[in-house]
Design brief:
Number of helices: 0
Number of domains: 1
Order of helices and strands: EEEEEEEEEEEEE
Strand content: over 45%
Distance between the termini: 41 Å
Shape: globular
Number of strands: 13
Helix content: under 10%
């Protein structure tokens, strides 16, 4: 299904017959922004020609169930790591536990101004977005296979078990160990 994967500017862009997808390389599920869930395609590291490059920005697709039906939303995470290191971050399960909107559809273009908080409990992470004190989608949980790199999670830096890390959406990155 995939035609090519390449770095375009500072973003890893995956092109397919169904349009454009953005995502983090290796064993993650890339979801089309404007397609039904059956259009998800899983890419593996061997499929990519960019394994030797640094990919500063990756785009993760979150599937959110809104009141008017299912939608797909792209959210950019910044990270600095060799793509070939990402098998240690393989997502084996993810789901949005709840979506709550106070008024109308989410303005995704405003997300860089939103706050992003990550909580870790064991091998499960909860991602919380909020803006102006209002939760946009309440929690998105991830479960990872071992080994898990403690300082890097799909562009999200985590410093300790159960610790909360709050970053600006457009400034997510890998923190040094220690």
């Amino acid at each position: 299904m995939t035609e090519s994967a390449e770095l375009e500017g500072d973003c890893l862009l995956v092109k397919s017959t169904g349009g454009q997808l953005g995502g983090i390389a290796d064993n993650l599920t890339f979801v089309y922004q404007d397609a039904p869930p059956t259009s998800a395609v899983e890419l593996r590291l061997a499929d990519l020609q960019t394994a030797e490059y640094l990919a500063p920005v990756a785009s993760v697709q979150f599937r959110e169930s809104l009141s008017e039906g299912s939608r797909f939303a792209g959210i950019s995470f910044r990270y600095f790591a060799r793509i070939q290191a990402l098998p240690q971050l393989r997502i084996v399960e993810s789901h949005a536990a709840e979506t709550r909107l106070n008024k109308g559809p989410i303005n995704w273009h405003a997300l860089p101004e939103a706050r992003f908080r990550v909580e870790r409990r064991g091998d499960e992470f909860t991602a919380l977005w909020s803006r102006d004190g209002q939760d946009w989608f309440i929690e998105t949980q991830y479960r990872f296979e071992e080994p898990l790199m403690p300082t890097m999670l799909a562009g999200v830096a985590v410093h300790g078990e159960g610790q909360t890390v709050e970053l600006t959406a457009c400034e997510l990155g890998v923190f040094p160990k220690g």
